[in-house]
Inverse folding.
DNA sequence: TGCCAGGCCGGGT
DNA sequence: ACCCGGCATGGC
């Protein structure tokens, strides 16, 4: 079921994307030099500021630990030491190892083989990994594997909710369908729109102020 | 200074 | 099916 909308007009994600693109320009997401770096970033950024994630990824690079085999082979406490700046370092070390273990065990360590799965199967496999939930799985599907999977996060919900497009208690998959059902098969739009929503979400309606003065969406959504 | 950041899990009700 | 505490660092 699509969540009930209080808005008079049907939600048009492509129009929303055009507004944001016009206002801010291309987002340039996801930062990362390789698909695996994107995957690692997706785990490390869970409830964590990206600036902290960057430090941890730099540590992994400096220690030559930014690949599947190395993470699979490294004890989690040693891995954790490099992850300190990103917070939750013990649990994140475990999560990165769970991910690497899955890729080693089921796909011979090959991201090509993993990404050869179709979007639904890839999402399912990722969700079976302890420490990977829907947002992390979908971020990997979209930004690392290049699948047509739209990423929903807390900001996406908050923004749509404030505009009366969804109810506050709408489920993840419902919100996702709202985008995937309307956006065309345009991977660039999937990537860029989510990125913009996160980007504006930070200072968008942070307080109980229902509408920020400079909101580019005002009157448009 | 306290609050927040691109969540997720496990245990309890 | 929800609800909650825990996980942890760095920036404003």
């Amino acid at each position: 079921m699509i969540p009930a909308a209080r808005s008079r007009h049907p939600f048009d994600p492509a129009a929303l994307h055009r507004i944001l693109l016009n206002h801010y320009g291309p987002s340039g997401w996801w930062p990362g030099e390789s698909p695996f770096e994107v995957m690692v970033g997706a785990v490390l950024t869970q409830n964590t500021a990206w600036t902290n994630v960057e430090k941890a990824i730099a540590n992994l690079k400096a220690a030559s630990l930014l690949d599947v085999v190395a993470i699979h082979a490294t004890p989690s406490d040693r891995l954790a030491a490099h992850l300190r700046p990103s917070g939750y370092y013990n649990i994140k070390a475990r999560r990165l190892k769970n991910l690497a273990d899955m890729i080693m065990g089921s796909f011979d360590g090959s991201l090509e083989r993993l990404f050869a799965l179709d979007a639904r199967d890839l999402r399912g496999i990722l969700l079976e990994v302890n420490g990977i939930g829907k947002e992390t799985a979908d971020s990997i599907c979209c930004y690392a594997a290049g699948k047509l999977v739209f990423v929903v996060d807390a900001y996406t919900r908050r923004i749509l909710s404030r505009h009366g497009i969804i109810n506050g208690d709408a489920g993840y998959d419902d919100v996702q369908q709202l985008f995937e059902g309307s956006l065309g098969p345009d991977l660039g739009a999937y990537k860029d729109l989510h990125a913009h929503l996160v980007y504006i979400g930070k200072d968008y309606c942070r307080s109980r102020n229902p509408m920020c003065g400079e909101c580019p969406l005002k009157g448009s959504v």
Q: What stands out?
A: Residues 47-49, 51-52, 55-56, 84-92 of chain A lie near DNA strand C (CB under 10 Å from a C1'). The radius of gyration of chain A is 18 Å. Chain A has a mean pLDDT of 91. The first helix of chain A runs from residue 13 to 24.
